[in-house]
Amino acid sequence: MFSTITREFYTSQLQQLNATKQRRQCTTYEPLDSTHVRLEGRTYLMMASNNYLGLTHHPSVIASAQEAITAYGTGSGGARLTSGTYPLLPQLETQLACFKESERALVFNTGYMANVGTISGLLTKGDYILSDALNHASIIDGCRLSGATIKVYEHNNCEHLESLLKALPTTGKRLIVTDGVFSMDGDIAPLPDLITLAKRYEALLMVDDAHATGVIGQGRGTAHYFNCSQDVDIQLGTLSKALGSEGGFVCANELLIDTLINRSRSFIFSTALIPAAIGAAQQSLTLLANDTSLYTQLQHNIDYMTQALLRQGIAVTHKTTTTGLVHDYQPTPIFPIIVGSAEKALQLSQQLFEKGIILTAIRPPTVPQGASRLRLTVTAAHQESDLQYVADTLGQLI
Ligand SMILES: Cc1ncc(COP(=O)(O)O)c(C=O)c1O
């Protein structure tokens, strides 16, 4: 029963979020193309999406989604293991395995479900998970659901990770798990060092390439970027960001994929992805594998934005120092502009909105207290004039 006490609980919880500027709301925008949206008759420039290659509106990707619907209908009708495996799914999995230089792939309905289902499907009570402090929420949830003991290592700190590995008992399986490109910071995991530790301490290594697929390593992700695909046990990704579709995937050897088909609850107990999503992802992958121009354009735009922000004196962590000199340059499209308080981030986001730019304020609990930010993302579809306008406007406001 929805009692007064229950109502008061939820009301007070929302009021508390209001008071700390952490309350969230969904805003409905009408997408016009991959970089513009409309709201109440006004057009805005989208600088907050993960549509890194602009593929959501690519004519051939749209056509492929439409063909998939025409051939196989609007829904899959059931879970993969009951009624849902129509031919496009294994075709896409073959394509993904080849793209990621892996033995085999398995498609999930979202990247979130891929993380939750993979980690909880492979690890259990008595096992150990070593997880980077800035890993995505879906990794954290997968770790919790597995029942394994979770050890969190300081962000990208391999010395700390090794000290935790050294202290583990000899029983149980071990998994080191990291974002490839970190979702809120845009920096890259030190994969070669993680591989060394995984080998030394006999741990499985899993990389979440949600923000690396289509983005680094010729679009093939973090392992390809470091030229070490054969040494990463599990490469996870999503179809929903650079690939312009919806869904998640895992690439690994036959044994691990077969285990997931039998043990991963988010895979087993959910209706298979719809044909339109698979058709779109197939064509996005085809484009990415055969045509380097989108990837090159994204890299150009990342570089352009880095320089434009630098000229405005805006320091972007991992791309600039506070003196404004580029050091440790990392070619990712995520620019975290850290402003501190949630209030300040919201205020800037609103000012940018008034200037026709959508740049969402990212606040706790997504990022730590005091590290609220604007998470600026650049795509291949942005024009240089768009990027310049955003950098100039930020320069005036910050
Ligand atoms: C690092 C990371 N992993 C996984 C996901 C989840 O992917 P999806 O949006 O496809 O569920 C996200 C999405 O925000 C992410 O940033």
UniProtKB/TrEMBL annotation:
PANTHER family associated with the record: 8-AMINO-7-OXONONANOATE SYNTHASE, CLASS II AMINOTRANSFERASE/8-AMINO-7-OXONONANOATE SYNTHASE
Q: Which organism is it from?
A: Veillonella criceti
- What Pfam families does the entry give? Aminotran_1_2
* Cited NCBIfam families: bioF
Q: Which residues carry this modification: N6-(pyridoxal phosphate)lysine?
A: K241
Name under which the protein is recorded: 8-amino-7-ketopelargonate synthase
What is this enzyme's EC?
2.3.1.47
Enzyme class label: transferase
What InterPro entries does UniProt report for this protein, alphabetically?
Aminotrans_II_pyridoxalP_BS (IPR001917), Aminotransferase_I/II_large (IPR004839), AON_synthase_class-II (IPR050087), AONS_Archaea/Proteobacteria (IPR004723), PyrdxlP-dep_Trfase (IPR015424), PyrdxlP-dep_Trfase_major (IPR015421), PyrdxlP-dep_Trfase_small (IPR015422)
Q: How does it assemble?
A: Homodimer.
